[in-house]
Each structure stands twice: as C-alpha cells, then as structure tokens.
Amino acid sequence: MDLQPSHHLPKTQHFPSLSFSPVIFKNRPTSLAIFSLSLLLSCIIFFTITRPFQPSSLLDIGLFSQILTKHQNSAPKVCDYSYGSWVRDESYPLHKYTEKCPFLDPGFRCQQSGRPDTGYQKWRWQPRACNLPRFNATDFLDRARDGRIVFAGDSIVRNQWESLLCMLAQGVSNQSTIYEEHGSPITKHKGYLSMHFEEYNLTVEYYRVPFLVIIDRPPKDSPKEVRGAIRVDRLHWYSAKWVGADILLFSPGHWWNEDKTLKMGNYFQEGGAVNTTIDVKEAFGKSLITLMSWVLQSLKPEQSYIFFRSYSPVHYRNGTWDEGGHCHTFVSPEMDLTKLESEPLNNLQISEMIKKMEDAQIKAQFINITYLTELRKDGHPSIHREPGTPETAPQDCSHWCLPGVPDTWNELLYAHLLSKQYRTRLKTK
C-alpha cells in the first residue's frame, strides 16, 4: 500500500579524460612524497566525478567526517507517519476537548446521541519508525498567527475541520473570542464558514466543494440521461477565496465514484459539451490537472503550504450504506490486517499530481491517512446519529465521532508543519 515515488533510470554520465604530465624532482624523498600526494588527490577527484558526492564514502576521518556529523545532527529527521499501529493509551490525549466543544455538529457527538462506550477515544497512533509529535495547540496557534487555514472538500473534511477547531480552542484563554466571521451558524450550514481566532488573528475556513470543480446544469442539446454536468476543466468559484491562504488542505476523492456521478445522471463536461464516454477515473485525473493549474497560477510558492489528504475509508459490513450495511457492533480497531482493502486508485492519482507539483517547486504534501483509518472500524457514529434521526435511517459508517479519529489526522498535519518549520511570520511579504 505504500506509495513509492517514480523511479527513473540514471542518465549516462560522460567523464572528462584525466591526463598528468610527469614532474621530475632531484630530491628523491620530496619527489616520492609529492607523487604519493598527487596520486591520492587524483584518486579522490576521479572517485568524486564518477559518482554522487558522499563525504562519508571518501574519507571517514578528519574534516569530511566532522562536516558529515554536523550535517546529520542538524538535519530534521524524515518520518513516514502513515504506517504503524494503534496503541491503547488511557492517558491519551493529554489535553483533549469534549463533546461540549461548541464547534461540533450534533451528528459527530456520539456520546450525547447514546453511544455507551468511550474506548474509541483511547487509541493513540504509533508510527513504525518514529514517534508522532504530541499536538500543542498553543504552539500551532502561535505558528499560524495572522494567517489563514483553508479546508476544502466534502463533509469528511468538514469532520476534520471541526476537529481542528476544537483542538486549537484548547490553546485559547477565552473561547468566546472564537467566532464565525459572518455570523453564520456552524451546524446545518452549507457553503463556507470562516472561524476567527481573535487572540491570534487567525481564520480557519471550511468550503463545501465535494468535487472541487463546478457542478453545473448540462448544456443545451445534451443527452436525456444527463441531469448535471461536472465541469472538470473549471475549478469551483470558491477558489477565488482561497488565494492568499497560508495552509490549504484539500480532500478531493470521496465523491469521485459512479454512485455520486454517472448513476445520478451527473456526467463530465470539458469545454462546451458533455462527453458521455469519459469514465470516473479519467474525469478525476482531469480535475486534478485543473486544480494543479490553479495552484501554479494563483498561489505564491513561498507562502502557501498545500496538503492533500487521502481517502477516508468507510466500514459498512453486510451491505452498502443503503442496503442495511452496519458498523455499530465494532468497539475496537481492526487487528486482522488481511481484511484491509488495497490502496484506493484516487490516492495513486493524487500522489502522481503532487510529484508534478514538487517538480514545479510547489510545497505540496500528501497526508496519507487511509491505512491508519482503515483500521478504525470502531470510530463511526453508526446508529448514534444526531437527535431526531429516524430509526430506519441508514447507519453512518463514513463520518467519525468527535473526539476521535480525525484528531489523529490533524496530529499528522501538525507534524508535517513542524517538519517544514512552518511559521507565518517567516513568510515573504
């Protein structure tokens, strides 16, 4: 499941010819010493130009080893936080919020909706080769002071957005100074929301754009089966509001499936006409190209940090969401790794796009939460949905209880920002 970067064959190297003129010394010891030194330097020069420079492979003593040691000690360690295991930890999290956090939708408050167990809140993610930095709300807020954080996507990224609001609120002395800039209610609200942290002059924004591109009425003379047009070559108009953000987190993959597109009569439009021959995979790839083009044209590489969060798995068992699928019996993470699904194709497409953005010197990062989330079949609201939900309504095995799994997604976001030494006051004006 691990996504590996594309490997390219090394280019053929052409080495310059080396020629040495004989030098004659009358003093034999001097001649021998100089000859030996010349031979050593020639070997070093030849070794250096015929392979990439690696100080430790030349001379592991003296100056080279001192430079290497100093460099190794000062360079930040790179860790893959995506793979590891869930560890039961009764002390986790150290400074958690509760369901009383005012920024949570009722549908994510599973305890208040009747869920009897709290064990799903006591699992800490442990990466294989390193430790995940503990989330520090005060430090995060200070680093993001006078900045903007944007979340764009569907209701799953809203799940993560609300989690981050509650996590950051733990670092604010007076939570009444956190408010929605336009006076909009945070629950039952579509469109976009912008929460302002007054003490830090920080906004944390959410934009509901499930496809990221525009969903429009079909053009005239479209086939009868076309009820809507997903315009893969036009980014949603909300994108104008994202310009200037310091952190942007996109969640682009969940709605790109046949159930949400073709089976609902939503076909793909490119230019002035709908193309009914394009499948979902190809259309998603075209939408990513549109997003990448917007990033290159609209954002400043020295200012904006761009993150793409991977697919968040669902856990419907014994049926789909609308055919009796359920998850209410699960009270602990999955331990049988043979039951895990393979890497979603959307993740692979996003990863390829990020590689192209990196080649263009754009600070883009793929936060792969799919594996760690696939293990957490116990973290969904299931039957414990918001008050007033009919008993016959489908279970919710796609969203997440809060506090819960999305808190870990935000811990990964924080860890990546630390590794990049993110701080708004350092950005170029």
Report the CATH C-level class of the largest domain: Alpha Beta
Overall structural class, as computed from helix and strand content, comes to alpha/beta
Biggest sheet descriptor: 7 strands, mixed
Q: Indicate the overall shape.
A: globular
Q: How much helicity do the residues have?
A: 25-40%
The name CATH uses for the topology of the largest domain is Rossmann fold
Radius of gyration from CA coordinates: 27 Å
By CATH, the architecture of the largest domain is named: 3-Layer(aba) Sandwich
CATH homology-level superfamily of the largest domain: SGNH hydrolase
How many domains, in number, for the residues?
2
Could you tell me the strand content as a percent range?
Answer: 15-25%
Please give the number of β-strands.
13
Total helices: the number is 10
Give, in spatial order, the strands making up the sheet with the most strands: 4-5-6-3-9-12-13
Give helix and strand order, one letter per element, not per position: HHHEEHEHEEEEEHEEEHEHEHH
Question: What separation lies between the terminal Cα atoms?
Answer: 40 Å
